[in-house]
Amino acid sequence: MFKELKxxxxxxxxxxxxxxxxxxxxxxAHLVIPVKRSKKKFxxxxxxxxxxxxxxxxxxxxxxxxxxxxxxxxxDRYRNCRKRFSLRFKLICGICNYEKMIVSxxxx
Length: 108
Prior knowledge:
Layout: H1 2-5, E1 15-16, E2 31-32, H2 45-70, H3 85-107
Protein backbone atom coordinates (compact mmCIF):
# COMPACT_ATOMS: atom_id res chain seq x y z
CA MET A 1 0.00 0.00 0.00
CA PHE A 2 2.88 2.36 0.79
CA LYS A 3 4.37 1.72 -2.64
CA GLU A 4 1.04 2.29 -4.40
CA LEU A 5 0.42 5.62 -2.64
CA LYS A 6 3.93 6.83 -3.53
CA UNK A 7 4.18 8.98 -0.41
CA UNK A 8 7.17 11.27 -0.22
CA UNK A 9 8.93 11.23 3.14
CA UNK A 10 11.54 13.88 3.80
CA UNK A 11 15.01 12.33 3.87
CA UNK A 12 15.69 13.98 7.26
CA UNK A 13 12.81 12.10 8.91
CA UNK A 14 13.72 8.95 10.79
CA UNK A 15 10.99 6.35 10.30
CA UNK A 16 10.75 3.61 12.93
CA UNK A 17 8.70 0.82 11.36
CA UNK A 18 8.02 -2.88 11.85
CA UNK A 19 9.23 -5.76 9.70
CA UNK A 20 6.29 -5.42 7.33
CA UNK A 21 7.97 -2.39 5.75
CA UNK A 22 11.20 -4.07 4.63
CA UNK A 23 10.48 -3.35 0.96
CA UNK A 24 10.41 0.44 1.32
CA UNK A 25 14.14 0.78 1.94
CA UNK A 26 14.44 1.75 -1.74
CA UNK A 27 12.11 4.70 -1.24
CA UNK A 28 13.34 5.98 2.12
CA ALA A 29 16.92 5.47 3.27
CA HIS A 30 16.56 6.66 6.88
CA LEU A 31 14.55 3.70 8.21
CA VAL A 32 14.88 1.79 11.44
CA ILE A 33 13.60 -1.76 10.92
CA PRO A 34 13.96 -4.62 13.41
CA VAL A 35 16.13 -7.56 12.40
CA LYS A 36 14.16 -10.60 11.22
CA ARG A 37 14.90 -14.14 12.27
CA SER A 38 14.82 -16.90 9.69
CA LYS A 39 14.79 -20.68 10.01
CA LYS A 40 18.52 -20.91 9.42
CA LYS A 41 19.69 -17.60 10.87
CA PHE A 42 18.97 -17.04 14.54
CA UNK A 43 19.19 -13.62 16.16
CA UNK A 44 22.32 -12.67 18.02
CA UNK A 45 22.23 -11.02 21.42
CA UNK A 46 23.00 -7.65 19.79
CA UNK A 47 20.10 -8.12 17.34
CA UNK A 48 17.73 -8.88 20.22
CA UNK A 49 18.85 -5.75 22.07
CA UNK A 50 18.40 -3.68 18.89
CA UNK A 51 14.90 -5.12 18.30
CA UNK A 52 13.91 -4.35 21.88
CA UNK A 53 15.07 -0.73 21.48
CA UNK A 54 13.13 -0.36 18.21
CA UNK A 55 9.96 -1.82 19.73
CA UNK A 56 10.23 0.46 22.77
CA UNK A 57 10.27 3.46 20.40
CA UNK A 58 7.24 2.17 18.49
CA UNK A 59 5.09 1.13 21.46
CA UNK A 60 3.59 4.57 22.12
CA UNK A 61 2.49 4.93 18.48
CA UNK A 62 0.94 1.47 18.52
CA UNK A 63 -0.95 2.25 21.73
CA UNK A 64 -2.38 5.46 20.26
CA UNK A 65 -3.49 3.63 17.11
CA UNK A 66 -5.20 0.94 19.20
CA UNK A 67 -6.96 3.62 21.26
CA UNK A 68 -8.22 5.28 18.09
CA UNK A 69 -9.48 1.90 16.90
CA UNK A 70 -11.29 1.40 20.19
CA UNK A 71 -12.97 4.77 19.68
CA UNK A 72 -14.03 3.45 16.22
CA UNK A 73 -12.75 6.46 14.23
CA UNK A 74 -10.48 4.36 12.00
CA UNK A 75 -11.83 0.83 12.37
CA ASP A 76 -15.43 1.36 11.17
CA ARG A 77 -16.93 3.06 8.16
CA TYR A 78 -17.50 6.76 8.79
CA ARG A 79 -21.19 7.37 8.13
CA ASN A 80 -21.54 11.06 8.91
CA CYS A 81 -20.91 14.21 6.90
CA ARG A 82 -17.45 14.09 5.30
CA LYS A 83 -16.87 17.78 5.98
CA ARG A 84 -16.79 17.05 9.71
CA PHE A 85 -14.51 13.98 9.53
CA SER A 86 -11.29 15.99 9.82
CA LEU A 87 -12.59 17.92 12.83
CA ARG A 88 -13.81 14.79 14.60
CA PHE A 89 -10.62 12.91 13.82
CA LYS A 90 -8.53 15.73 15.29
CA LEU A 91 -10.74 15.87 18.39
CA ILE A 92 -10.37 12.14 18.97
CA CYS A 93 -6.59 12.41 18.44
CA GLY A 94 -6.55 15.22 21.00
CA ILE A 95 -8.46 13.05 23.48
CA CYS A 96 -5.99 10.20 22.86
CA ASN A 97 -3.00 12.51 23.39
CA TYR A 98 -4.53 13.94 26.56
CA GLU A 99 -5.24 10.47 27.93
CA LYS A 100 -1.69 9.29 27.16
CA MET A 101 -0.27 12.43 28.80
CA ILE A 102 -2.27 11.80 31.98
CA VAL A 103 -1.18 8.15 32.09
CA SER A 104 2.48 9.03 31.54
CA UNK A 105 2.37 11.61 34.35
CA UNK A 106 0.85 9.04 36.73
CA UNK A 107 3.68 6.61 35.95
CA UNK A 108 6.35 9.19 36.75
